[in-house]
Amino acid sequence: MPAMRPLGYWLKTVDRLIDAQFEAAAADAGLTRRQWQLLNATGHGARTPADLDVALAPFLSGDETSAPDLDVLVRRGLVEHAPDGLGLTAAGRETTQRVQAGAVGQIRERTTGGVSGDDYAHLLTTLEKIARNLGWEDDE
Predict the structure, then answer these.
(1) Which residues span the domain enclosing 46?
(2) What is the model's pTM?
(3) Arithmetic mean of pLDDT, 5-32
């Protein structure tokens, strides 16, 4: 029986596979993965560029911001500047709902297929504990 592979191997493998799946789904919708993430975050209440950068922090590197991709979404008419901050336009809501119901929903179903709700909750709890052991804090 082969040796069990270590945590880092599985984390990197799953991360790479998820990235590839989401990148392809976003491309099919005419978006980059980052643009999809911005639409999704805006739809969930992120109202300022700083809010979006916080929401996307795990996917940004160094001093990178989401501003260039946000500008593209504004130019395409998917996100708009409103009195209370950034918001999705009607086209942005339609695009987000279409992608969410289609490819993204399928990816999420495929990702957790065969994994019970309890196992998935346990996995997330365990990963959070590991992250905290390594110094992660909620405000990151």
Answers:
(1) 16-115
(2) 0.79
(3) 91
